[in-house]
Design a protein that fits this description.
Elements lengths: L28 H14 L5 H23 L3 H10 L3 E5 L4 H8 L4 E5 L7 H7 L19
Helix pairs in contact: 1-2
């Protein structure tokens, strides 16, 4: 389960894998446009303020998407429980798959991230320690100097 805010591509799902996507409808349609700008800015040099501002908007979008995911309804939660899933896969931008995995009693979670970094909010929720002096997060203002 993921935010499903962007098209993930045309990859087919392997046999035996169940994917569940919650269609997210943002209350502010401009936020969807903001996401496109944020994704562009991540790969270009922007001002610290621009990156901070778009990051705040993206955070608000994650919260709204998470609320919608957690409101999928008891019927879907019960269907997940009945599947007895062995594994849940979560993405570094979103803690909601962890909450869903907990609700449906999945004990093993794979956390997909880029490089060796973990967002601070994710580390706190998963009980991990971060060492920004050694491995700064790519979206932080800290570098290797």
């Amino acid at each position: 389960m993921e935010m499903s805010m962007v098209v993930a591509g045309d990859l087919s799902i392997p046999p035996g894998v169940t994917e569940f996507r919650v269609p997210i409808e943002f209350s502010d349609k401009m936020k969807t446009e903001g996401l496109a700008i944020f994704q562009t800015m991540m790969f270009n040099k922007g001002s610290a303020y621009d990156l901070w501002w778009t990051g705040q908007e993206f955070k608000d979008m994650r919260i709204e998407a998470c609320q919608q995911m957690l409101e999928v309804g008891q019927k879907i939660i019960e269907s997940f429980k009945s599947e007895n899933f062995d594994l849940a896969i979560g993405h570094f931008h979103d803690l909601c798959p962890l909450a869903i995995a907990e609700k449906v009693n999945v004990k093993k979670v794979v956390w997909i991230t880029h490089g060796t970094s973990v967002y601070d909010f994710t580390a706190v929720q998963t009980g991990l320690r971060t060492f920004p002096s050694f491995v700064p997060h790519p979206l932080s203002s800290y570098g290797d100097k």
